[in-house]
Amino acid sequence: MNIFATMDALLRDPESVYELAARGEGLGRLCLKLLLIFAVTAGVYGAAMGCFRWVHPEYYFSDFELSSPAGETYRGKIAGVNFAKMTVYTVRDDLPEMAQAEVRFNIDRPSDVYQVQSVGQQQSYGAIVLAPGSVVRESAAWRMPLLVALKTPLLFILTLALCAMALYVLNLAFEIRLHFMPVMTTMAFGLAATGVMLGVLVPITGLFSIVTADYHFMKVMHWFAFMIAGSFGVKILYRGLVRLSSNGTSRVSKLVIVCLLLYCIVGGQVAWTLKPFLGTPYLPETPPFRVESGNVYVNFFNSLSHVTSGVQATRYHSTTQDRAQ
């Protein structure tokens, strides 16, 4: 059975795939096929998720260096951006009014020079109005979608590798008594189904990535997308264990619940290690990994509170949790 036939059977007739596993032959090859299906589909979703920073260049700004026509230099942090007005808002509110100045962003790795139409004050923020027609881009913006396309399947597969022996022992503890390869194959069933569901959600999340500039909204949306895809994967995993086990559905249900909790806890920490997935507002560079202390679940509820309280994405406060994700 080739890869496309396996994917079609997993969705249309999963019993035929379960039957392959029940025979106990070629489980290694079947497992690799399932993991390849997951890697491709989850990678496509990851690329769509990583495009958010690409299509919203406001996330390129972190700090600035403003040069006046008289040769004076002013430096400060960025508070927000309004591209409709071509205005960059700064934390520094003591900038003198001037015209025809020049500005660079991201002082450590300076951007191109941008012409400034005017500098002034708006409420408690400084306001740098860029010259009409200014095009602000992040250099090598293609790296972010590529990195996330690699990191998304890596997140799940690395979590499975870390949990593999624990899941096998749990299978024995609940007296399901499957051998190691059948256990790993059923986990691969779940991952492949999760990846396929993520793949079909790509057009939806891609649309919102383009039309939505709210960083916290997109974080919460991706959380729910993973929850939906994961639920479908758990369903396929459960049915696979029931098909391969002869000890009834009660013990299988308990095993699936415990395995799911373990996988989610470990996966959350692995995700924290592999971050960022969306890119952080107002950080000039997005490293492949940003290992910091913190809790991914606390960060999720923090973003959820931002969404429910109506915080606008064009203005952020540099909190520790925001810079960690």
Keywords for this entry:
single chain; 325 residues; alpha+beta; 2 domains; six-stranded antiparallel beta barrel; 12% strand; disordered C terminus
Question: How does this structure look, described?
Answer:
Strands 1-2-3-7-6-5 form a 6-stranded antiparallel β-barrel. α3 (27-55) runs antiparallel to α4 and α5 (180-200) packs antiparallel against α7. The radius of gyration is 24 Å and the shape is elongated. The chain has helices at residues 3-12, 14-23, 27-55, 143-173, 180-200, 202-211, 215-244, 249-274, 296-308, 320-324, and strands spanning 63-67, 73-82, 87-90, 98-99, 102-105, 114-122, 125-130. Mean pLDDT is 80; it is low at 311-325. The longest helix is centred in the middle third of the chain and has 31 residues, at 143-173. By secondary structure, it is of the alpha+beta class. Helices cover 57% and strands 12% of the residues.
Quick structural gist:
With 325 residues, the chain is α+β, with helices and mostly antiparallel strands. Helices cover 57% and strands 12% of the residues. The chain has two domains: 3-56 and 140-308, no CATH class; 62-130.
Summarize the helix and strand pattern as letters.
Answer: HHHEEEEEEEHHHHHHH
Annotation field: number of helices: 10
Report the mean per-residue pLDDT as an integer. 80
Decide which structural class fits the backbone.
Answer: alpha+beta
Q: Major beta sheet, specifics?
A: 6 strands, antiparallel, barrel
